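tool_call: predict_structure(chain=1)
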Amino acid sequence: MNNLTKFFLPLALILFLNACNGKLPGADARKVPYDPRERVKKNLEEGKGFRLDDTFKGKGSGNFEFATSNELWRASLDTIDFMPIATANYSGGILITDWYSDNQNLNEFIKISIRFLTNEVRSDAIDVKIFYKKCENIIECKITQQTGNLRAELTKEILKKAAVYKKQSEDKSFRPYNMPEIDNRN
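tool_result:
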């Protein structure tokens, strides 16, 4: 055997055996229609894929891959909209507020940090940290991180809003697809 065959034969065997595990990533036979025409229809109705008739309409694509299309990001901004934002880095996946006080106690401040771990709306998608700053005077301040009830409530509120936004975007992207008739008289 030459060197080329020695290289490609094991590679082909590995690829063949790897393909035999019987699982397709993301494919669930209960959720995916058997008929290919039905799969195409389902994907196009859910906004997956593209249609050539949309390409020639002369408008912009309308698909934005920015913060407005991320439900968790939008929900987080809407939830903490009363606080000034110090850092908002969408590509880095972090949102940090500035120190905030509610004018009732000017010696106590709060700061919130939200880190996005995934774009999916699920319970472990965000990491919320809350910091409290208590000052005796301008120079003597103590900063502590809290993990209490406020953190859980804030996370719950963000996830609730994100789920609503996700449902709205799914409803908005659904467009019925009329299957063209195929002439089978050949």
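agent: Confidence is low (pLDDT under 50) at residues 58-66. Proceeding to next step.
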